[in-house]
């Protein structure tokens, strides 16, 4: 299976989906990781240009650590994601057409800040448009309207998952990948007083309690027409 994971900022997938992506790689899937923004807002001290370089390199190291096939970043400035930007739509369409996913994991459509929600809308629309032959971009059209799984939003009190993936055997690798984002561990503590590593581990413990596993990640399947399958696509895990 080919899996495309699209996160908004360079660390979003590590926080809420990397355990699952590691499981995908373990079962033999080709995993492609795409970040939409360059992380330009994530520092109290560095300029947008400086922190962008740092953050993209952190994300690339994390992707390499778990064995992803490729890391792609679309380079949009933080706070500037627009799901109706035709240039950005075509960029996302080409990511989908290039990677040819059987399944896509991305941001939840209802989250605590605009960039996250815009990425969710962007991926939802582009994943259909990527299959339309008469919409011409750099790559030929994809033959699959890929099923979508929305990962847990950062503001998760209203989140009602449909699927869980146990990640107990890979939790430490997930945490090691997240620790690659040293700039964001520092930024989130300084900006909102959040301990990123502790919060991420606590969320995995909480989700695990709900599905009888020590650690888990949670997802919401898209229930729109042509996005569902009669079989499980996410990996198994305890």
Strand order of the largest sheet: 3-2-1-4-5-7-6
Give the overall pLDDT as a whole number.
Answer: 96
Report, as a whole number of angstroms, the end-to-end distance.
Answer: 21 Å
> Structural class of the helices, strands and pairings?
alpha/beta
Sequence-ordered SSE layout with sheet pairings:
Elements: E1 2-7, H1 12-16, H2 18-26, E2 30-37, H3 48-66, E3 70-76, H4 86-99, E4 103-106, H5 114-129, E5 148-151, E6 163-166, H6 171-179, H7 182-192, H8 196-210, E7 216-221
Parallel strand pairs: 1-2, 1-4, 2-3, 4-5
Antiparallel strand pairs: 5-7, 6-7
What are the defining features of this structure?
41% helix; 8 helices; 238 residues; alpha/beta
Description:
The protein has 238 residues and is α/β, with parallel strands linked by helices. The chain has helices spanning 12-16, 18-26, 48-66, 86-99, 114-129, 171-179, 182-192, 196-210; strands at 2-7, 30-37, 70-76, 103-106, 148-151, 163-166, 216-221. A seven-stranded mixed sheet has the order 3-2-1-4-5-7-6, sandwiched between helices. Strand 4, helix 5 and strand 5 form a beta-alpha-beta unit. Helix 3 (48-66) runs antiparallel to helix 6, helix 4 (86-99) crosses helix 5 and helix 6 runs antiparallel to helix 8. The chain is globular.
Summed up, what is this model?
This protein has 238 residues and is α/β, with parallel strands linked by helices. The chain is 41% helix and 16% strand.
């Amino acid at each position: 299976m080919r899996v495309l994971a699209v996160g908004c900022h360079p660390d979003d997938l590590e926080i809420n989906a990397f355990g699952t992506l590691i499981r995908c790689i373990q079962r033999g899937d080709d995993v492609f990781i795409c970040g939409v923004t360059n992380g330009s807002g994530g520092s109290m001290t560095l300029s947008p240009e400086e922190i962008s370089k740092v953050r993209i390199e952190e994300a690339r190291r994390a992707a390499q650590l778990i064995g992803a096939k490729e890391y792609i970043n679309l380079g949009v400035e933080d706070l500037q994601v627009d799901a109706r930007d035709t240039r950005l739509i075509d960029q996302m369409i080409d990511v989908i057409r290039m990677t040819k996913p059987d399944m896509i994991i991305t941001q939840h459509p209802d989250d605590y800040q605009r960039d996250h929600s815009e990425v969710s809308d962007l991926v939802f629309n582009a994943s259909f448009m990527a299959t339309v032959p008469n919409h011409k971009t750099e790559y030929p059209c994809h033959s699959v309207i890929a099923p979508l799984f929305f990962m847990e939003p950062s503001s998760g009190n209203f989140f009602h998952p449909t699927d869980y993936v146990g990640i107990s055997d890979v939790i430490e690798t997930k945490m090691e990948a997240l620790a690659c984002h040293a700039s964001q561990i520092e930024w989130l503590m300084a900006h909102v007083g959040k301990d990123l590593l502790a919060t991420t581990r606590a969320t995995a413990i909480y989700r695990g309690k709900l599905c009888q596993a020590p650690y888990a990640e949670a997802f919401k399947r898209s229930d729109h027409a042509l996005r569902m399958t009669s079989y499980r696509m996410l990996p198994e895990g305890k």
